[in-house]
């Protein structure tokens, strides 16, 4: 029963880490980190991502323009690019490492301690990947709130608001964090059954000589 619960915890943790990693990749390239609605022209909406700015018009559709220079971007967008790339890389490594540490795989059954360490390492990588995904998303959201309530900007000037990519990024970061925690919990819980198993084997080995001789075990 404990083995089934541990395998289920490992699979759920790996699934959450995979969903978080996919969502993190989509968040990186989705041009909807910020939205801007114009009161003068309700048929035109502006969106901004880490790589480009887009305008959406009902007659023309979506037209996007890439940013000309990386150094000309605001600090939060420059750092967000780096951190999101780091999150995607760490998330992939976490999935790869923790996948080899699953108990449901037949490979490496004789090296259970190594598989447990792989699970711990994969959980830590997923956990760090979740943090590096939450930091840029939360930073851009914080700057958006600051600019929205800036009293120095006149009221008639349109303000940027939260885009769909921010919510997807929060989901990605939390999924990676939760998945990494489940993988680490499953790895830590896998040590106790092994210890009891070794104790049972040792006890059987001590009782075997008495069974072969046909004598009773003095401990009984």
Automatic annotation (TrEMBL):
Source taxon at top rank: Eukaryota
Subcellular location: Cell junction, Tight junction; Cell membrane
GO cellular component: bicellular tight junction; plasma membrane
Entry-linked InterPro entries: Claudin, Claudin_CS, PMP22/EMP/MP20/Claudin
GO MF term set: structural molecule activity
Keywords: Cell junction, Cell membrane, Membrane, Tight junction, Transmembrane, Transmembrane helix
Transmembrane segments: 12-30, 82-106, 118-142, 162-183
Chief location category: other
PANTHER family in the cross-refs: CLAUDIN (PTHR12002)
Function statement: Claudins function as major constituents of the tight junction complexes that regulate the permeability of epithelia.
Family: Belongs to the claudin family.
Protein name per the record: Claudin
Origin organism lineage: Eukaryota, Metazoa, Chordata, Craniata, Vertebrata
Designated gene of the protein: CLDN24
